[in-house]
Give the backbone structure.
Amino acid sequence: MEGVAAVPHNVVVPLLGSPDPKHLVTIACGLAGDDGTVDAVVVIELSPLLPLDARMDEEEAAARRLLARARAVADASGVRFVPHIVRAREAASATGSVTPGRLAELLSPAPATNSRGPTI
């Protein structure tokens, strides 16, 4: 339609147990378009027995590596990329919390067999 500005798409991509985020991020970049944003989320799930600020050095390092690979894919597509590492008791509920106040589409991957942090 003429005279109607296109609204940039915001796409949230949970990278749960995905050692290679290329496929998911490529799809998200296509959905987001040139003016959109891809918010990539890695949730580090913590047992209820641990405080949310417990040291999870290995999981955080793995999450950073995973997000770096995802950023490379988004950069090649020319789409704005926002990485998120979230600590939570449950990954599913935490994923939606990364875009408060913004309308975003959630790209839902197949369920991960190991959601206790990123797989490397």
In short: Residues 10-106 form a domain with the Rossmann fold fold (CATH 3.40.50.620). The chain has one domain: 10-106.
